[in-house]
Design goal:
Elements lengths: L8 E7 L6 H15 L3 E8 L5 H8 L6 E6 L5 H11 L4 E4 L11 H8 L5 E7 L4 H17 L10 E4 H6 L10 H7 L4 E7 L14 H18 L3 H28 L6 H46 L1
Parallel strand pairs: 1-2, 1-4, 2-3, 5-7
Antiparallel strand pairs: 4-6, 5-6
Length: about 300
């Protein structure tokens, strides 16, 4: 589906303590919208800033009618800011840009042009030196490409995507890092383009060393969900049946020892009981998860219908 100027664009800007960057950010997007002739809105989500980010942004709504400002009472994180942006956006195409101006708004048309080639999502591939973060990013993205088989070089960069993508994906806390992975898992066509990264001029980076272990744990969690939670009965039920069969086999051997060889071996009896009970527990757990996943799918379908009715 090609991108045309008749499609409405919603640019989502999560911001936390970016007061100094807000004026230039809005000015540059205004220039891009006008130069490209885009029907666009700019949604700035103030994620509980403690400086004057919200006041500064709100002041600009008086002179820039395309600007919408939404505020979180506290800092909820990038994922929640994006989800707020998804709910607020009225565009056919959504674009994610950070507020730190390390990505120039003037480069946004590069994403839209690539999207017009028939992609559902286009993600940026950072060009530029960004110190220690570049090393961490390289290893993180390399592991992610291998683990999830997604052929993009940078999961955490600017993105342009069709609204159907965000409508189809449920993001948990801090799962914005895996938005591309989850989109690919849903069958959406993913593309990427090289995007320049510029030095930060104002404010401080929100990157912290504690994000590394959190990211690793989320990596495992997302992979677990994608593999095991699709068919929980197949996974846990198979383990349960296997343990049950092992327990029965051990029980038969225990009877053979007791009544044929006239020997008793109490630890084997404990093993039989443990294996059979564990098998029943795993099988039951798989059954309950299967029911829960079915209910979750029904709730997601209902949510989608309610959202469509609200927007119509």
């Amino acid at each position: 589906m090609p991108t045309t100027n008749t499609e409405k664009i919603s640019v989502l800007i999560p911001a936390f303590n970016e007061e100094e960057n807000v004026p230039e950010l809005i000015r540059k997007f205004s220039e891009v919208f006008e130069k490209q002739g885009l029907d666009a809105e700019l949604i700035l989500i103030d994620d509980g800033s403690t400086d004057d980010t919200y006041r500064c942004a709100t002041e600009h709504t008086k002179t820039h009618p395309f600007l919408k400002v939404v505020k979180h009472r506290s800092n909820l994180g990038l994922t929640e800011a994006l989800k707020t942006g998804f709910r607020t956006a009225r565009g056919d195409i959504l674009v994610f840009y950070p507020a730190d101006l390390q990505y120039d708004p003037m480069d946004m048309p590069i994403l839209l042009e690539k999207l017009s080639e028939g992609y559902d999502m286009v993600t940026g591939w950072k060009k530029g030196d960004y110190g220690l973060k570049s090393i961490i990013s390289f290893f993180y993205n390399s592991v992610s490409r291998w683990l999830f088989a997604v052929d993009v070089h940078d999961l955490n960069s600017v993105k342009a995507f069709r609204k159907c993508v965000s409508d189809s994906i449920t993001l948990r806390n801090d799962w914005h890092r895996y938005f591309v992975v989850l989109a690919a898992e849903q069958g959406f066509k993913i593309g990427e383009v090289r995007i320049p990264l510029y030095p930060r001029k104002h404010g401080k980076s929100k990157f912290g060393i504690l994000r590394i272990p959190v990211g690793i744990l989320d990596l495992i969690s997302v992979k677990f969900q994608m593999i095991f939670m699709k068919k929980p009965m197949l996974v846990f039920g198979s383990i349960g049946v296997g343990l049950f069969i092992i327990g029965l086999a051990a029980g038969v051997y225990s009877l053979y020892l007791r009544f044929v060889l006239l020997q008793g071996f109490r630890p084997l009896l404990y093993f039989v009981v443990l294996s059979v009970l564990a098998g029943i527990v795993f099988f039951s757990f798989g059954f309950l998860l299967e029911v829960m996943m079915t209910m979750l799918e029904k709730l997601e379908e209902l949510k989608g219908e309610l959202d469509r009715d609200r927007d119509s």
